[in-house]
Amino acid sequence: MPTPHPPRPPYPPPGGVPEESDEGLAARLRGRPDGEAAPSVALLMARHWQPVHEYAAICLASPQSIADMVTAAAFHQVLDRLALGEPAAALRPRLLVAVRDTVRQWSTQDRISGVLPELGKPAGGRGMRTAKSMTPENRKLADRSFQALPGLARCLLWHTEVEAEPLSVPAGLLGMDTVTATAALEQARDKFREGCVHAHRELAPTKDCRFYNRLLDVPIRRGGALLPDVQQHLTQCRYCRNAAEQLSHFEGGLGVLIAEAVLGWGARRYLDTRPGRTQGDGPRTRGSARHGAGRRRLLPRIPAQVRRAPGGPRSSRTLLTGVGVASAGLIAIMLAAGLLSDDDGVDPAASATGGGTGSPMPPAVSSAPPGTAQLPNAPRQTRLRNADADLCLDIRGEPKAKAGTELAECSSDDTQQWSYEKDGLLRSVAGPDLCLDSHVDAGVVILGKCADDDSKRADDVRYDLTVQGELLPRWDEQLALTFTTADAGADIVVKVRDGSDEQRWLTDPVASANPGSLSSAETETPGARAVRLAEEEA
Question: What is the mean pLDDT of the chain?
Answer without folding.
Answer: 75
